[in-house]
Amino acid sequence: MNDLRYALRQLAKSPGFTAVAVLTLAIGIGANTAIFSILSALFYRPLPFAAPERLASVVKHFSASDAGQIYIDPPSFFDWTADTNVFQGAALIAHRSANLSTAEHPEHAEGNEVSVGTFDLLGIHPALGRPFLPEDATSGHDHVVILNDVLWRRDFAADPHVVGRQVRLDGAPYLVIGVMPPGFAFPELSDFWTPRRFDPNEGRGDNWVHAFVRLRDGVTLAQANAHLAGVSRRLEREYPTSNAGVSASLAPFRRLLFGGANPDDFRPTFLVMLGAVGFVLLIACANIASLLLTRATTRQREIAIRAALGASRPSLVRQMLSESALIAFGGGAMGVLVATRALGLFERGVGVLVGGIPYWFAFTVDWRGLLFTAGVAFATTLAVGLLPALRATAADLHDSLREGGRGMGAGARTSRLRGAFVVAEVSLAMVLLVGAGLLIRTVVGLSRVDPGFDAAHAFAASVSLGGARYDSARVRARFLNELARRLEALPGVEAVGAMNLPPLLIARPLGEVLRVEGQDDSMRTTLVSSMAGRALRALGIPLREGRAFTPTEDEGASPVVIVNETLALHYWPTTSALGRRIRFGRNPAEPWRTIVGVSRDVRQQPVAAAVRDEVYFPYGQRYSWPSVSLIVRTAGDPMRAVAMVRSELGKADPTIPLYGVLPMREVVRRSFWDRQLYGAMFSAFAIIALLLAAVGVYGVIAYAVTQRTREIGVRLALGAARRDVMRLVVGQGLGLALAGVGVGALGAVGITRVLASLLYGVGPLDPVSFIGTAVVLAGVALLASYLPARRATRVDPMVALRYE
Fold first, then answer.
1. Is the CB of residue 642 less than 8 Å from the CB of residue 459?
2. pTM surpassing 0.85?
3. CA-CA distance, 123 to 389, in Å (whole number)?
4. Max CA pair span of the chain
5. By three-state DSSP, how is residue 52 classified?
6. How many of the other CB atoms lie within 10 Å of CB of 718?
7. DSSP letters along 594-637, please?
8. Which residues contact 521 (CB under 8 A, 6 or more apart)?
9. CB within 8 A of 64, min separation 6: which ones?
10. Cα(109)–Cα(102) distance, rounded to whole angstroms?
11. Neighbours of 341 (CB within 10 A)
12. Residues 6+ apart with CB under 8 A from 392
């Protein structure tokens, strides 16, 4: 406590030094805490469910080597999960879009149909009302709904008597039986839930639902997967048409919450980010250690007196480390505030780029973040304080107490150490700047990728055709084609179409196995989607051969398709694909479909991926989903036509809202949002590192000028030109910077290879990024050295030599 009180007094005597040190460390520690908190929330923080470690996602595989998908068929699911000795329970989830109407107005809502008992398996119960009961899933009693807390507060003003009221989903009345707790929106951003009984005997091989299970106590994931493998082999024998080569496994529950993406695919990227902010903290520590070295040099006489009065070296080191600890933990306390602010900015940035944040992802510094901050602060105490303390207490007692002793030897040693710190800072800044440069060049490259369609003068918006009025594919197709015709009559509108899976708007496009007539070895996975109206014209996708679909090609017409160039060239490299026939899946009853057109290739997610085979169907013939995207092409600014389109849709059917309006340029930009986010984060870290490195260079050169004031005075007195002094001082700073650039370039060669999976159109050894970074660092070092060098040229020789 005495050491701490003394350390507080010492720091209070130097408020400028203390403020700079604490703020510098606050930036470094805060950035580390923020990235750690993101990592913790994504991968390590327990999910907000009862015993989440026993929950698992069901993944379906079509071969032993594929990564699998979370879309499965209900009959196989019931067979896989029938053994109650392995599974405590299992649940199915089907996405449902609906037009929700209250007494005031219709609006679009995203929800899910769930099997009874889903919420019980999660251990979550409604805050108001009751959960679904088995009778709720029977025909005639299934028009009940449970609301999300956000929707309840927005549309019902948090009315506690909402239970028992009616709402209309797609025009049909539903009875509200419950409201879920605040923050619950399972599995992603659900506004409501309705019950559904999934038929265990219908649709085998038709993959359209998600599933999860809760394991029995004592059953491991490996044991459950072994059980699923045995059941899959049995199903393959019993149902060779639908289950040949098909198997199931359990994946961590987070995979369902990630929308089917494997969480492990994201972990390396955020670990790289944690390493990047670790570099920022190391640079900050080098700066503070450099300042403490200088401070220790000026206190050598004080330390010598304390030693002469009987203080041991360990007690002196402990006392100096107390000052470092106060600085580090002060920086840690402020770092928590910095981290909280950074997490808020990150949340807003991700929300803008992707349109929403998963409900289970909490952007907070919890107790794990606080514990991490304390650990980093303790490590920082040793990193910034131990070497200066050992150096200061190792000085010769007699030299330090000698009358007029200047400690020139100690000053030289200190200068060398400070120079080493600067080299380290510049080298770490070099690594970060090269990484930022590579990611920036990647974003620029992706922004220039031709998506295969004309994004200018077009926008996309979603509509949902649910309810009894649109109970057949033919009715929905007729409505969409008529709506497209009416919208094209609006002034300034050139073409309108609808697609169920428009390019770049779907994170994971749908694929099916394709078979080509006359080619027995043609089984390849092909992307599929359906369209109505003049969708290709609206997107600006030209036909290379053949024709577009006609409005009369609905579910009763001859089966036809349009294929892309890549598919046509793969199967018919030397002849035309027109008139050829293809079909999908293993079912021999599936009709052959005639190719009537070949379109230009377009890119799907991710935009950097290679173009894949793709087939388009007339909307009424296949994949006639209720939810579709309208594509509207205009002669001018597309967003000016949104109001007219919304008004015309209201005239066609006032119960259908238009939602999710986005210019197609924005759709393209959002397709590589992850690279934009990583590039922005890396750039922020690199800019901080560059500023800290500049401060380090400035501090070392300024200290050197102070130490060499007498030498500079002598040089000037003997006739040295001031430009020679300028060259001498600037040369020292530039030399340190170039040494750091050299070391940093070697480090960047190794580190940037980790970023290779995030790069597009640029390699990890891109010379532009390396050379550009070296030039920037050299220029910053030159500027940082110029200021103290300019002061050195103004030294008055008489003043410098007065006390000699």
1. yes
2. no
3. 55
4. 107
5. helix
6. 8
7. EEEEEEPP---SSTTSPP--EEEEETTTS---SEEEEEEEESS-
8. none
9. 247
10. 12
11. 12
12. 296, 297, 299, 300, 303, 316, 320
Please report how many Cα atoms fall inside a 13 Å half-sphere around the Cα of residue 567, on the Cβ side.
33
Tell me whether residue 730 is exposed, middle or buried, using C-beta atoms within 10 angstroms of its C-beta: 0 to 12, 13 to 18, 19 or more: buried
Give the Cα-Cα-Cα angle 14, 18, 21 (nearest 5 degrees). Answer: 145
Enumerate residues 6+ apart whose C-beta is below 8 A from 497: 484, 531, 532, 533, 534, 535, 536, 537, 538, 539, 630, 631
Helices (H), 244-312: 254-257, 267-298, 300-308
Three-class SS state of 712 = helix
CB atoms within 10 A of CB 468: 8
Q: Which structure tokens are listed for 554?
A: 């609905």
Q: What is the mean pLDDT of each run of 10 residues along the chain (804 residues)?
A: 83 86 92 92 89 95 82 95 96 92 77 95 96 92 93 92 92 94 89 95 89 96 96 94 90 88 80 89 90 77 79 84 92 94 85 71 86 94 86 66 49 74 91 92 88 94 89 91 95 95 78 82 79 95 94 83 95 94 80 95 82 92 89 95 95 91 92 86 91 87 76 79 85 90 91 85 91 93 87 74 58
User: Which helix (H) or strand (E) covers residue 387, if one does?
Assistant: helix 367-393
Q: What CA–CA distance (Å, rounded) separates 21 from 287?
A: 8
DSSP-based helix, strand, coil % in the chain, nearest 5: 50, 20, 30
**The one-letter amino acid at 607:** V
Please give the distance of CA 162 from its chain centroid, rounded to a whole number. Answer: 37
Tokens of 425: 């800072």
